[in-house]
Specification:
- Strands 3, 4, 5, 6, 7, 14 and 15 form a seven-stranded mixed sheet that branches. The protein has a six-stranded parallel sheet with strand order 10-9-8-11-12-13, with helices on both faces.
- It is an alpha/beta fold and 328 residues long.
- The protein has eleven helices and 15 strands.
- Helix 3 crosses helix 4 and helix 3 crosses helix 10.
- It folds into two domains: 2-127 and 268-327, Quinone Oxidoreductase, Chain A, domain 1; 130-262, NAD(P)-binding Rossmann-like Domain (Rossmann fold, 3-Layer(aba) Sandwich), CATH 3.40.50.720.
- InterPro entries: ADH-like_N (IPR013154), ER (IPR020843), GroES-like_sf (IPR011032), NAD(P)-bd_dom_sf (IPR036291), Quin_OxRdtase/zeta-crystal_CS (IPR002364), Zinc-ADH_QOR/CCCR (IPR051603).
- One of its GO terms (molecular function) is oxidoreductase activity.
- Residues 10-326 form the Enoyl reductase (ER) domain.
- Keywords: Cytoplasm, NADP, RNA-binding.
Length: 328
């Protein structure tokens, strides 16, 4: 089958076209003809860092985690799916799991679900990693109807899904962005936009919560921005972070009695632990999408498999809105 592989880790140009063996079916797995995949930040980190990142596969590596496609073969023990089902999931591209920058993947049936009927393959491929991350973070932080929820980075891959899910759960949603296109998208998604470049945390906390703070802060920016999340949270508030690889002073979190939820959605894939939870979340996301309450935003660019280098360049440029998708 056709694939784009990495023989040497580095810049976006390292992808090479190759013909590799089509994967063989295994028990509890399904063989999927891939229609589309999407690029996530972790994909660019693996491509750049290689062995420096503990979750990276060894070279020659087949990257790519998300996919949408059609089942062509069902493995022993799989009863929920059959040939011809359109499915989506996040099932490869790290450690010893071959990725999705190819025509086929053999995916663990606990890492997939039927794709939303009202979404295209490209739209469905944009959801799994960011959708599971956003859903898990909001759920672990105990989101409830009527809460004031702040999403940092609302025009990004995880953030724009978190806005829609928070609204689905009945919250009043606010979100930060740094430019007119980003703020416009945030408003279109149904959140009140906050320009973090022109408004201080203190200003927008006062403006939107009368100084009380947000009940739940979902931080898809992370790193140094987590200090802003602590400052924006209410007393005994909840903070969910997707980027927590940093040193941080927790003094403010202590004195405000905050709860911090670190979301690392790759754990089930890396450790083969609780994979069925991903299937459960994906099924919930399908239901929400089919109800018209979740539609991924696709970047204006359009790439084919041979152009994956350009897709990686697009995501790392910081200019992409929503998700960068690659059609196979």
């Amino acid at each position: 089958m056709k694939a784009m592989i990495v023989n040497q880790f580095g810049g976006p140009e390292v992808f090479e076209a190759a013909e590799i063996d089509k994967p063989q079916i295994k028990p509890q797995h399904v063989l999927v003809k891939i229609a589309a995949t999407s690029v996530n930040t972790v994909d660019t980190m693996i491509r750049q860092m290689g062995a420096e990142l503990p979750l990276s596969p060894a070279a020659p590596a087949l990257l790519g985690m998300d996919f949408a496609g059609t089942i062509e073969e069902v493995g022993e023990g799989v009863t929920e799916y059959q040939v011809g089902d359109e499915v989506y999931g996040c099932a490869g591209g790290l450690a010893d799991l071959p990725g999705t920058l190819a025509e086929y993947i053999v995916a663990d049936s606990n890492l997939i679900a039927r794709k939303p009927k009202n979404l295209t393959m490209q739209q469905a491929a944009a959801i799994p990693l960011v959708g599971i991350t956003a859903y898990e973070g909001l759920q672990r932080a105990g989101i409830k109807a009527g809460q004031n929820v702040l999403v940092h980075g609302g025009s990004g891959g995880v953030g724009h899904i978190a806005i829609q899910l928070a609204k689905h759960f009945g919250a009043k949603v606010f979100s930060t962005g740094g430019g007119e296109p980003q703020l416009k998208l945030i408003e279109q998604l149904g959140a009140s936009a906050i320009n973090y470049r022109t408004e201080s945390v203190e200003d927008y906390v006062q403006k939107h919560t009368q100084g009380v703070g947000f009940d739940l802060v979902f931080d898809s920016v992370g790193g140094a921005n987590m200090a802003n999340s602590f400052a924006a949270a209410a007393l005994n508030g909840q903070v969910a972070s997707t980027v927590s690889m940093c040193e941080l002073d927790l003094t403010l979190a202590h004195f405000k009695g905050l709860s911090l939820h670190v979301v690392f959605m790759l754990i089930p894939m890396l450790h083969n632990h609780g994979r069925e939870q991903h299937a459960k979340i994906l099924k919930a996301l399908t239901t929400i999408a089919e109800a018209g309450e979740l539609t991924p935003e696709l970047d204006e660019t359009d790439y084919q498999l041979a152009e994956v280098s350009k897709a990686h360049e697009r995501l790392t440029s910081g200019k992409a809105m929503g998700k960068v998708v690659v059609s196979i």
